[in-house]
Amino acid sequence: MSAVRFGIAGLGRLGRRHAENLAWRVPGAQLVAACSPVAEEREWASSNLPALSLYADYDELLTDASIDAVWLVTPTSLHASQIIAALRAGKHVFCEKPLSLDLAECDAVIDEHARHPHLHVMIGFVRRFDASYRDAFDSVANGAIGRPFMVRSQTCDKNDPDGFFVRFAPTSGGLFLDCSVHDIDLARWLLGNPRAKRVYASGTIAIHDGLRACNDIDNGVGTIEFEDGRLAVLYASRTMAHGHDTQTEVIGTAGALAVGRNPRANRVEIADVHGMRNACTPTFFERFEDAFLREAQAFVALLRDGKPTGLTLDDAREATRIGIAMRRAYEEGGAVEL
Amino acid sequence: MSAVRFGIAGLGRLGRRHAENLAWRVPGAQLVAACSPVAEEREWASSNLPALSLYADYDELLTDASIDAVWLVTPTSLHASQIIAALRAGKHVFCEKPLSLDLAECDAVIDEHARHPHLHVMIGFVRRFDASYRDAFDSVANGAIGRPFMVRSQTCDKNDPDGFFVRFAPTSGGLFLDCSVHDIDLARWLLGNPRAKRVYASGTIAIHDGLRACNDIDNGVGTIEFEDGRLAVLYASRTMAHGHDTQTEVIGTAGALAVGRNPRANRVEIADVHGMRNACTPTFFERFEDAFLREAQAFVALLRDGKPTGLTLDDAREATRIGIAMRRAYEEGGAVEL
Amino acid sequence: MSAVRFGIAGLGRLGRRHAENLAWRVPGAQLVAACSPVAEEREWASSNLPALSLYADYDELLTDASIDAVWLVTPTSLHASQIIAALRAGKHVFCEKPLSLDLAECDAVIDEHARHPHLHVMIGFVRRFDASYRDAFDSVANGAIGRPFMVRSQTCDKNDPDGFFVRFAPTSGGLFLDCSVHDIDLARWLLGNPRAKRVYASGTIAIHDGLRACNDIDNGVGTIEFEDGRLAVLYASRTMAHGHDTQTEVIGTAGALAVGRNPRANRVEIADVHGMRNACTPTFFERFEDAFLREAQAFVALLRDGKPTGLTLDDAREATRIGIAMRRAYEEGGAVEL
Amino acid sequence: MSAVRFGIAGLGRLGRRHAENLAWRVPGAQLVAACSPVAEEREWASSNLPALSLYADYDELLTDASIDAVWLVTPTSLHASQIIAALRAGKHVFCEKPLSLDLAECDAVIDEHARHPHLHVMIGFVRRFDASYRDAFDSVANGAIGRPFMVRSQTCDKNDPDGFFVRFAPTSGGLFLDCSVHDIDLARWLLGNPRAKRVYASGTIAIHDGLRACNDIDNGVGTIEFEDGRLAVLYASRTMAHGHDTQTEVIGTAGALAVGRNPRANRVEIADVHGMRNACTPTFFERFEDAFLREAQAFVALLRDGKPTGLTLDDAREATRIGIAMRRAYEEGGAVEL
Asked: Does the CB of D136 have a partner CB in chain A at under 8 Å?
């Protein structure tokens, strides 16, 4: 069986990780092209990746007949149109989360995809591919905690004292759509895809006053009420002192499972004047390095062997829909019915 | 300085613990009387406590001139009237939490207390006296985590498969007033007593369908929005599989403190076919055994030395007020403004 | 049943703790006398303890007819002669560990005790009375780990940068007899009192060069080989950076139990720039505060109810015998047969 | 720079992992040949690896001119002669630990290697390449714990109830040479390669009586005394109930570092009737999966870029020398001078 030939679009910090994975670490994948409007990023590619075609323009990439699939690590505002263009060009698509900040765009992608049933589109909810989350999912599925009825989940980034991210806040969709969207997807996945009925959310600016200009926050909490009484309680933050601290708990009638309660960097513990301690994962890169690789392997297995990933465009649309409702609930100070 | 002479009212399971503490373990306290309408409880007292006067009737207890203070471990519905009667009889009062399920009753107690400024009334928010919570409070006060802006706190009881507690649910005030009231008080205490502006709450029945009859739930979550953007996220449950799991987290701009993340029973860890594990505290008795003792010591120190406890009737009223709002938010499915 | 009336001898740092326990916290005990050759210590007693008789001279204490039992917290070099004198005066005896640094002295105490079978003597191997150690012992006895065949145990003190303890090193018996004696006793207790056959020990001076003068060390390790192949591996240190770190592991054919793997000060965890961490118990006082109390309760229960403690003078002698052998093994650089 | 072309010898369980790493996961490596006398293993290779040359005979492998380096995952008894033959054939050599059970053989390899200074030989002490061990090493080197003076380290395998390994015990060199050799190497590495002066060891058969026939044990402990008072305390076991439990502690004058204190399988924690717990790594494969990969990357980096690994044949010889001394100490019941 021949390798899947990928063209990647977007070579920023995360894009480079994906490119390296596709180039070196995913059996069955071949990275044959890369695309970036930024000259410096194309130079990085030509110096650091195996020989490949380089494009400044995404439309040119799509005309490259040697490419089976595109891998999008581009700004969220471009996702929908780029996916649609790729489908029309006959390419499979992997796209970083979120699918879009806009429901109509999500629907347009879903509609276009329906016209190309032989092509696969996968949105990169990377946490589903982390070994610990996978173990938790399997344990829940095997009945280890009885009937799961509640998820608590958080996505908390280490504080960047420079507040560099504040510049990107206006286009990020806000804290809930940028960060909590992961937890929304996890909650639905771990609870068996129940339908959301109502959400509530609150937030505050703990440190970065610059967010006020775009009505964003640096700490936010929310509740999702699903049908059948299932619940999710979410927390997102950009101001952690100790590191990137992503954790998720699934509570069932016969037990509870927690993933990542201590964001330990590795297996080292230190005993010194500061007490008994461990270092923490500084960013989501270190935390989900393996998951990014497994995610790519899963997409290749889907394309080559038809092995389902359990992740659909409808899941991605639902994460956006709930995220938007959380933002609205925060803005309005009241529950939002779905 | 002479010992404070106590008369205790209520000798149920928790009352007996309090009685034993007052009788044997609190220097400066003397347990001289006990009161219970239940003959079996009075017999327990005469067999297990040092010689003391026994009363079936609370009013008789109050006429006992040898008593300086009463210690109430009676049903919540009696708290307010019993406190008022004790104040009128010239006694100091310790009373188990919550002060009352009714705001008007809280106000009546506060009004009566204002007429007896030389008498002390303390409501037993026992967690404030736990060594670990005290350490967390002191660390926050010392600036260890910068400015605290959020509390996450839970009161989760081990599931009672017999659902015995369902019988008492109709008079308990419901999950939020019975359990979350602790977390409400902790959140206010740890955040510096900010004023609550709005609450939201959700809940579900995971196991005990019998609660439906009184519109109660066995798992509930809630959000409290305080002035200045401070937040509290609470969880209460009656269905934990592993034990009594009370934990609280304070998140600040320079760090976070967690109390009780693993409800370990003691310092023993076991490595066997079930993995690496520790037993958990089965009930709040084991978890807060020391705190009940320190609470009594603190009340005696208040009476003898005037040492303030930092806990006022207004705090108790506020906990009830917020708890009522959470119940209403759950019932109405919408945010409640305070 | 009347209270046991105690006279305590020795009011140093540890003696004061014992005195306070006997005075206030042990139902059934009454502290009626105290003895110290140090005027300042007697003054402390008269200011801080309930009214009691004070003696400068131990022999005078023994003539006090109101005393049922003496409680010795005196220098190790005095233990044997003071126990013998107390037995001859018809008093029960509690004595801090170790019984003696000299085997002949141990035997003299055992011989004298045999002449007073109605009197109890207990050596304070306090760890046996710690709730976690007790839980571990019970679990082992109940077969939780199958057949226990190995103990690893350590007594590690926080480093005292002033090296104050170096002054007392010459009379302490050395690291193995002063610290490891606890672990020796625990190993025997947890393994079912097997007979030791051979020991080996090594040591080093990591920090406190002043110990060289008396041939002592500040870090030492040892192995005890018992009959039937049971093993103990011990570690003692005076130079820990993080706190007092006492831990013990029992390894069996079906699992292992560890006590105190993380010497956490309480239930608080901190997440900040130093990582995820907990404070550690600074000294054995904080770690074993409860155990000292339970130890006193157990001795009173022995005297009043005849409830056995499971701790004999032969156990104390054996701990000394093995400790002496470890010291010799270290000095000679070779295994010592027992 | 062209890829390093490898021929692997030995395709048992561990050999297959190495082969898959070289085939798919090590940039700069190419697996071009494999050798096994077992037909079934060669068939596995032809079905599961990229196209390569297959040999039944090791000497034939060495005549394959397309091979730059051999990778030996063969029985320990063959290591020395196979390394020597490979060097004579002009091949670089990676060889699984231990180098040999015999010091004369170690010396013969070292002598032969001296005749081929342009060829590299690396013995696979895989733990040095584990991310956590590497972090510990770097932290020690950076002074995080002051001067390191003691290592405690263990290699403990999960019990195999079938005792399958007993069959291989006679040729394994015994517990100390098979398991502790890892800890010996780690202790030397972490303490700065001090010279060993004296060792002591003890052991027992806890479960597998079949080991008695070859004078082996299933649990063993040992002490290594290095020059300058540095110490190592080792433990090896084949009978753990909970999983593969490899851990190492480095104790210094300003702190201590522990690697792997809880052999957690991943980031999942479970709260249920068994308490709060985590699953454990079942075998060294899961524990050191990443380290095997990094080890291969390090060897390729050595061959291509001359980047030193810090691991020499003298280190491998020293591990064998100390392991032999530990076995002798156990057999003789006395300390062995080195």
From this structure: yes
